[in-house]
Design goal:
Radius of gyration: 54 Å
Shape: elongated
Largest sheet: 5 strands, antiparallel
Distance between the termini: 110 Å
Oligomer: single chain
Strand content: 5-15%
Strand order of the largest sheet: 2-1-5-4-3
Length: about 600
Amino acid sequence: MTHPLRRLLAAPTFADEEKDRVAAILHTILLAVSVICVLAGAVQFFALEQDQSAMLVYPALLLACLTLLGLVRRGHLQFAGSVFLLCLWAIITFGALTYGGIRSPTAGGHILVVIISTLLFSGRLVLVFVALSLATLAAILAVELAGALPTQLTPDTPELAFLAHFIHLFSAGFFLYLAVKNLQDARQRARQGAVKAAELLHEATAAKNYADNILASMAESLVVIDPRGTIVTVNKATLDLLGYRPEALLGRHFTVVLPDFGALATDNSPPVGAHEPVERSYYDMHGKPVPVLFSHGRLPGGEGQRAGSVCVASDITQLKYAEQSLREAKQLAEEASLAKSRFLANMSHELRTPLNAVIGYAEMLLEEAEERGITSSAEEVRKIQFAGKHLLGLISDILDLSKIEAGRMDIHLETFDVADMIGTVLGTIGPMIVANGNHIELNCPPSLGFIHADLTKIRQILLNLLSNAAKFTERGAITLSVAKVLHGPTQHVQFSVTDTGIGMTNAQVTQLFQAFSQGDSSTSRRYGGTGLGLAITKAFVDMLGGHVEVQSKLGVGTTFIVRLPFVNPRDLSGSKRAGSLPSDIAEVARAAAMRAGLLREKPEAP
């Protein structure tokens, strides 16, 4: 069998199961009729004597069947089936009228019209063809009784009678076989559908049990409500949290659990999925509030329809207790820190007075030892003097930091010449720079002139930065640059201190301005210090409304850049020269100090 012939004999298939069934039956019928036409035409041609007009009947029927097969393959099943049945009805009716009338064996072929219509169609079309067959039989009877039958065209021979009966029996048996097979196929499909339905029911039951197990094992409370706010599902965690039994909640409005439900905009029209959780209060069966972290989202439903919402809540009672405990602990820690800072700030006079006495007596002993020429004693006394001054510097740093933390560090503004201030700073720090074999470069334009700021704090900032540069640089260069720059919309005075010292890593830079912090333990052991200088520098810069930046590379060097708001003394009236900063700069300074935790809000007077 060639490939094209196989394709011709194969029934077409469609996505719709019923359409596929009708196509298979109609395709089989048309093929069978085509075979009958071929066989009957051959028998008539070789065995029977007929005129040429009768010889054209079976080829015409074969051509009609092939045309209908083409319509079936294109999906025009109802039209092709109706045309075939009408053709069959016409042939049967014509055969009965021209060969025996109502007693003709051909008249019994109307049962084939009924069987085929039942196989192909349903409803009104079946009734139409049944009524057509009955009406045709009645019409044939009426014509015969009236004596108006047409002239018999087919000769009454035994061979022809046998052929007619054979065709009728073969067709009836074939179509009955198709009907029975169709019923068997329908029963098989029903069985398969029942098995599939049972499998789907089993899968649905397993999915439901799986979902129920998930809901039962959830630690969070879950409540499902319908579009009207009625509770339709609760899990075990909800019942345990609120102390209810299931029947006490199901069917009731959600406000029995969350009385203020509807107070938020998302309560009545939540988005699909969960929104950001918020703190709400559930109420248990005794009316006691239970703090929860609540969120809920709309279930996706059909187009334009709401399918309800899912409400999820987590009990945060313990978190609220812990939050309160942490708040109390934080308050106690702040009070203890404030008491410590106030204590150290108040101890300034008591600590510095005896130290100044020790340093003073050491200087007197040093002078006396040098006058008497007692070299060995002078060296020991010089050590006492150096240790005393070092200790006084450390205490001064600690006291300054304590004053800052206690909010007792004030800003004292005055007008001064920047060049004179730089000269004083270099005169103080010069010996320390030279001690390590370094040299300093100064870039300070004479046009900078006078500024209005806190002289003491700016001088301390530069001393701290230059002393660090001198400490961590050996036989290198230290550069101090001063300039007026425009930083954003405000003009600033910029101080840059650059060294060629040991430099720092990125990790060390991130903890640079923390109190009592240095690069690592080896740095502390080798270079000494408490790590307070840069913390105080950062605090002073923030108090003055400025900004400090660090640029460093390990083994190459470090650059500190300090920018402070520039206040031109000429823009100040006489009453403001010794007063406070201008309002805009003062506001910036206060905001920076508040962010750094250097100032606290003053309580309102009762």
